[in-house]
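Changelog-linked ticket: alpha-D-galactopyranose example.
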Amino acid sequence: MEQKLLDEFEKIFGDREGARIYFSPGRVNLIGEHTDYNGGHVFPCALTIGTYGAVRGRTDRKLRFYSMNFAEEGVRECSLEGLAPDPDAGWTNYPKGVMWAFEERGMAIPSGMDILLCGTIPNGSGLSSSASVEVLTGFILCDLFGFEVSGPELAKICQFSENEFNGVNCGIMDQFACAMGKENHAIFLDAASLEYEYVPVQMQGLKLLITNSCKKRGLADSKYNERRAECERALADLQMVIGIETLGDLTGEMFEQYKSAIKDETCRRRARHAVYENQRTIEAVKALRDGDMEAFGRLMNESHRSLSQDYEVTGEEMDVLAEAAQRQKGVLGSRLTGAGFGGCTVTLIREEDIEEFEKNVGREYRERTGLTAEFYSVEIGGGPVVHYQ
Ligand code: GLA
């Protein structure tokens, strides 16, 4: 990969002198969906697929961007002065947003850069290609210009850039998972306090299999923001009768006791998902620690059902994929991962059953939706790294 990046860098930017290579992972969330912005827990892990960057500082204030994934767009140029979101700037709004966020936090960027990216995550699949690019950018800024930023702080800056520069009201999970990844471990994160623990994931002949629905995620950002607003309404109603700060403060029992305070039926279901999904996440981590992978898988299935029925972020395609997966031999659990409205499922499956799984699920998905699914077996990887030249 390094040679390929440097060759391409030379082709695009004239020479490779002084270019450094970086990598930042993508992530998959094992369980704990739509809980982060509700003050609950999440349980994601970083992946060995992600985004590579070849980067060199410049002597002027110019930024030049090129992505091998969007080669047809050619080199995009802008200045470090007056960074602002630009609807015509495509993917470069992500790195630009992070640069803007560093400056907002008082870290002035001294010079421009030539930046070439190459992603190994399928775009728009729900495996956080954007958070991967954001964390990569922040990591590069720290390395090139000597800013000292901890992993959790980097995650917060990247989230801030996505919220304020790119207008997506996301929680902290994706950026945190990419910035803080650890090989063979998932991250049990309390999104309210940002306290976290690494939990070893011993696969014991099991694999994490990602199935990409290849369904375009139309309107995903506005639907995402709508779900957030519905949860906020539910919380405001609950706060009239009980002193809580977030939905994550509630156990299932407490929710049952106070749920009638939530006036709107839809908001009540959204809150029910947030509360029970948080409880499932805590239980799933316990199951994993006890080596009870069967229980972990069952909780994944319950998570999907709740995302489908109460949170309504799955849609027909994701439901077909998860339900078909859950019926296959060797499958312990399968669920939507990420925000939803398309994207991927994550399936916990015995390694020897993968081939048959892909055949059966691929066929059923094609027959029922007319779409062709893609499958990737993934490994849990570490956080961002630099390969010095
Ligand atoms: C997106 C957001 C995360 C999280 C998930 C849903 O990936 O970026 O913060 O809310 O959706 O769990």
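Closing comment: Example verified and attached. Residues 33-34, 36-37, 170-171, 173-174, 338-339 surround alpha-D-galactopyranose (CB under 6 Å). The radius of gyration is 21 Å.
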